[in-house]
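[recover] target loaded
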């Protein structure tokens, strides 16, 4: 039982630290070789007869890529000891849950949870299913590019899978009582996390974190921004929505800032925003298509002008209506075989079929980051277009790493589509500075006067600015 390839020095150091522990976390950025590092830990456990079998859980969309990686790095004897299952399957199949529960009950299994951020929500069925499996496994490992996507509350479920004693809390409620501050007006929304230095100290003995910049020499990332102007009707609607939402803006209440971001971004991405008042008087945001013809949307028209069918492109979108429209427009312009899509509206089987078509034939992969932004090896592609961006920095970096990873030999080109004089510019500024948009905006509010806030938003027809406190 052996590996077919040698480990790099930083991978050996990771193995050295975790090989002395029954549980551990490998937070290795995409492309730094977390699969081969985990395989070496498996080999050591198996040859020392600490475990009899490895149960490797991963996102369903990455099963084929994972199997390819294991075939490349592991000998047949090592491969035969590994069972792979999609994490999503645990949410849907009682039969699979029963089979795996019987396996871990009857054998001494090493449980590996790949892309462990998928189980950051402790209340989901998949997380509870994995907790049941973990209860029968003495040896456990979680893998991910980074431990946090939104805030430190993401750590709780991941480390409870390993052992609740690491953080010291048996339930999320006891964790939250010490580390989470919730929004007063939206009880399930986290404002910020507290005592994070305590969490860092508790997880450090069990954690290895490896960054690409510290261990790999990869080709450059070349960034470019392409700007467009909103149509006059769109600009007027943008101003109206901004006026409505700025009226209740309060930097001490993050939910008011999120509503502002959400409403304005919907407009600049081609949606019409309206407000529906519920019986309590709260106004909910409702959206519908702004343009009858997608070609009238200047954002989508600019994407089309930037896409060259002689090369391969991943086009990331925030909204399903953008994916629908671009898939239709590109297929119509360049032929049905030119474009595939990759999003949550498709079955896992269909997504994998289309991914293979992109690899072998199609020029364009139109996707959302939540589906295509994790664990896919797409080094054969050198171009990404962000039709629209979110303010989630972790998701953005993960999606860039689909092509900027070990094995990439060519320079890559990343283009952002940006609506001039709008929130788009602030989002790109925050992403480029690798800062949190919410915190950045709060600081801007504190330092700006009313006219500066108006200019920052990019709207020029407010009637309610006098109600804002700088």
């Amino acid at each position: 039982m052996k590996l077919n390839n040698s480990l790099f020095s930083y991978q050996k150091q990771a193995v050295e630290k975790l090989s002395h522990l029954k549980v551990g976390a490998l937070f290795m950025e995409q492309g730094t070789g977390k699969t081969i590092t985990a395989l070496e830990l498996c080999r050591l456990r198996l040859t020392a007869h600490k475990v009899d079998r490895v149960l490797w859980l991963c996102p369903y969309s990455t099963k084929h890529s994972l199997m390819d990686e294991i075939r490349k790095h592991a000998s047949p004897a090592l491969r035969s000891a590994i069972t792979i299952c999609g994490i999503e399957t645990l949410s849907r199949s009682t039969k699979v849950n029963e089979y795996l529960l019987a396996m871990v009950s009857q054998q001494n299994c090493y449980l590996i949870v790949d892309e462990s951020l998928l189980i950051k929500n402790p209340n989901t069925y998949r997380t509870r299913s994995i907790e049941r499996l973990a209860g029968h496994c003495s040896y456990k490992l979680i893998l991910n590019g980074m431990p946090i996507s939104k805030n430190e509350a993401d750590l709780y479920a991941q480390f409870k899978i390993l052992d609740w004693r690491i953080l010291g809390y048996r339930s999320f409620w006891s964790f939250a009582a010490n580390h989470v501050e919730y929004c007063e007006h939206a009880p399930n929304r986290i404002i910020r996390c507290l005592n994070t230095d305590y969490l860092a100290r508790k997880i450090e003995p069990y954690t290895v974190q490896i960054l690409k910049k510290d261990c790999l020499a990869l080709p450059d990332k070349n960034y470019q921004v392409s700007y467009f102007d909103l149509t006059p009707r769109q600009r007027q609607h943008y101003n109206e929505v901004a006026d409505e939402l700025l009226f209740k803006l309060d930097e001490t209440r993050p939910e008011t800032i999120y509503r502002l971001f959400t409403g304005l971004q919907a407009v600049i991405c081609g949606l019409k925003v309206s407000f529906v008042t519920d019986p309590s008087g709260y106004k909910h945001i409702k959206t519908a298509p702004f343009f009858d013809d997608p070609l009238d949307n200047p954002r989508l028209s600019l994407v089309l002008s930037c896409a060259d069918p002689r090369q391969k492109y991943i086009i990331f979108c925030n909204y399903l209506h953008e994916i629908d429209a671009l898939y239709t427009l590109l297929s119509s312009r360049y032929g049905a075989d030119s474009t595939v899509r990759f999003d949550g509206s498709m079955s896992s089987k269909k997504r994998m079929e289309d991914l293979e078509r992109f690899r072998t034939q199609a020029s364009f992969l139109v996707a959302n980051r939540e589906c295509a932004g994790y664990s896919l090896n797409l080094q054969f592609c050198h171009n990404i277009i962000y039709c629209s961006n979110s303010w989630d920095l972790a998701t953005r970096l993960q999606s860039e790493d689909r092509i900027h990873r070990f094995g990439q030999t060519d320079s890559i080109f990343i283009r952002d589509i940006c609506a001039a004089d709008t929130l788009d510019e602030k989002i790109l500024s925050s992403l480029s500075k690798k800062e949190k948009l919410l915190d950045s905006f709060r600081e801007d509010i504190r330092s700006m006067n009313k006219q500066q806030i108006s200019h920052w938003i990019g709207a020029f027809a407010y009637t309610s600015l006098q109600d804002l406190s700088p």
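[recover] notes: The chain has 21 helices and 16 strands.
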